[in-house]
Structure formats: C-alpha cells, structure tokens
Amino acid sequence: MTTKNTKDTHARKRGARLASVCALAALLAGTAACTSDDGTRPTATQRPSGPAKSPVPTACADGTFVWINVDQREVLTGVAAPQKLGKGGGELTNPMRSLHTPRTDVATETGPKVDAAAALRSLGRHIGGAGEDAVFAEVGRSAPGVEGNPTSIDGPGTIVEYAFVREVVADFRHTCPDAGASTGRATGWMVDGTGVLDCDEPVKSLEDSRPAQAAARLSCPPDAPAVKG
Q1: What is the pLDDT of residue 11?
Q2: Is residue 59 a contact partner of residue 182, using CB atoms and an 8 Å limit?
Q3: What percent of the chain stands above pLDDT 90?
Q4: Whole-angstrom Cα distance, residue 114 to residue 104?
C-alpha cells in the first residue's frame, strides 16, 4: 500500500497492532476472527495437521533374490471378430479389440522396498532366454497396442486375428547381508506376436496353441471346430 499522509501511516500501524493481537488469538483459539480497520482479515499461518510422514525404507543394493511360483504363459492382448473370406482370400479388416495389457511392475509386500529394475534383472536371469534382454528390466513397460499392420490371407475360411505376449509372474524373497529381508511379486512380459486361426479348422499349432485356443473361444461360434479342437 502506498503511504499518502500521516493519517494513512497511523492507520497502517494500528492495523499492524491489530494483526498481532489476532495472531495471538489464533494461536490460543485455533482460528483468526479479527479484522483490520479496512475490513480485511489477517491470514493465520497454517500448521500441518498430523505427524510428518517418514520416508519409505529401501532395501540394500547388494542383496540376493530367491524366486518362487514362477509362472510363464502366453496371454491374449487382443482379438478380432471372425471375418468370412472366399476362395481367393483377402485382407483382414476387422479391428482387434484390446484385452489384457501386461505391464512390467514390482510390488514389495513386506520389508524395505526393493529396487524394481534390479528385481526384474534378477528375474530375467532366472528364467533365461528372452528374459535376459535389457528391455525386460524396463519398469513400467506396457505390451504393444493391438492396432497392428494389415494382414492378408490367401485362402478361404472364417478367420480370426489375435495378438499375444508371454507374461511372467513370480514371487520373490530378497535378503540383505545384515539379515534384512523383503518379499513381493514381479510381473514382466516378452515375446509379443500376432496370429490368425480359422474357426472352421481345429487349432493345430503347438507353439501358439494357448493364445489361439483362447481367441477361438472368444470369437468363434461355440460349435466351431477351432473351439472343439
């Protein structure tokens, strides 16, 4: 506020004394109810409610992971409605709808919080193969979308297109040299792919049988050979 004369100065000093009184009242009563001469209410300093939160303890960096209940399986991430193609085949135009979308994650359930990337690296070494690729340990990595590229079939049939990944879920125990321990669960994924099946024929591929059979059950008629097979 710009001072214009001595009266204004005097009023400002009186307002300052009143604000001091209000601050004392706020301290004693918990709220400020006073106002200054110009009708404004002094702002009381807000104190945090409740005790301050303690930082989450973290596990040691030189600990050892032990893995149990390791489950690896191909899971569907998308599937399309069946499309009838004639003798010459053609391009699949039915879009895939998104289903399960795996995402790499680590949850510490008991004990100090473990480093998520370190846990995924350890899990990758444990399962071997594609799990040892550096991308497997990228925390928060989501499975690819199911938009995909156009797919063409060169023969007739009632065709269903699908997408899948190999998902890995495992429980762990992490121990430190000082005997501190943590437990939790890690989720990762690898080997994403797409495939097609014909509802009019039994599923024959052993490699992709799980996602293909799941896609057949979701999209083909209940009495279709792909479902029964």
Answers
A1: 35
A2: yes
A3: 65
A4: 15
**What is the pTM assigned to this prediction?**
0.70
Question: Given this model, what pLDDT does residue 31 score?
Answer: 41
Give the whole-angstrom CA distance, residue 219 versus residue 229. Answer: 14
Rounded Cα distance, 138 and 33, in Å: 55
Return the C-alpha torsion angle 151, 214, 207, 198, nearest 10.
-50
Q: What is the phi/psi pair of residue 75, to 5°?
A: -125, 145
Identity of the residue numbered 156: P
DSSP conformation letters of 41-91: -PPPPPPPPSPPPPPPPB--TT-EEEEEEEEEEEEEEEEE--EEE-TT-EE
Residues in the chain predicted with pLDDT less than 70, given as ranges, are 1-54, 148, 205-208, 229
User: What are the phi and psi torsion angles at 144 (to 5°)?
Assistant: -60, 155
- Looking up tokens 């799941």, which residue turns up? 214
CB under 8 Å, gap of 24 or more: what pairs does 1-4 form?
Answer: none
Amino acid residing at 185: R
